[in-house]
Amino acid sequence: MRVDGIAVGDIVKASIGGRVVYGEVLEIRSGIVYFNPISLGSGWRHASAQQIIGHWRRAGRRRPAGPDDEDTVVAPPQQLALRLDLQQPA
Predict the structure, then answer these.
(1) For the whole model, what pTM was predicted?
(2) How many folded domains does the chain comprise?
(3) What is the per-residue pLDDT across 5-19, written as a single tens digit (0 to 9) for each?
């Protein structure tokens, strides 16, 4: 498998020594993928491109960069106000 499409935070599946290991990618250097294994009992922390047999990208909605971001939703003051005029049951 090519490591060009693998990024930090992705999940990889590696076959090392006849065992299958899943891990979250920490770093990619010189064609070697360094990962944090999902099962901590695994002794492997890196795999070569030939040992990677599966890859899942980290996907999802991206968070806004800051309060001035255009995608930020601002709630109107009426929505945030407490209604104090409700009568309490006696």
Answers:
(1) 0.63
(2) 1
(3) 899 999 999 999 999
